[in-house]
Amino acid sequence: MMNDDQDSVFNKDLLQQQLSNYAGLVENVLKPQLLIAEQAANRIRQEIRDYQELGQLLQQLNMTDTTATSTTTTMVDLGYQTIFCQASKSSGRMLLVHVGMGFHVELTISEAQAFVLKRIQYLQNTRLHPQQRNMDEIQEHITSATDLLLQLQQEITRNSQRNDNTTNGLGQ
């Protein structure tokens, strides 16, 4: 049979082990999951910004009165907004728009504008919002685990103080 001193050491060791387990869960599982989810959300946000920029460019093109004989000149991003080149298009009424999975479709400016609006709405509703919910859920898990760690630490401190008081009381 265990006496009170052995029982308190056992409880302290058990609580310390639980504290380490939960700290490992937060640091090795939850925080990396949150980082991955944040990176995915940032990629989606960047794609939304790219489509918004395309929408603004299409609006500018729509406002200019281009005829079949006029030439439209613009700067085209060749890669991650670091390399640009000047591009000229003889007919400003039809455009090739990347619609996903490597496919490009020839659309009028107004069709391209409608596509951009639908694509932004799709990205926000079906990709960004679920990703944001996932990030919120992971953050809630981190908060819960952190609260539990704090409670365990407080319990260890209380038990340690109780043991110190008991030991000091017996020694006098």
From TrEMBL:
This is Prefoldin subunit domain containing protein.
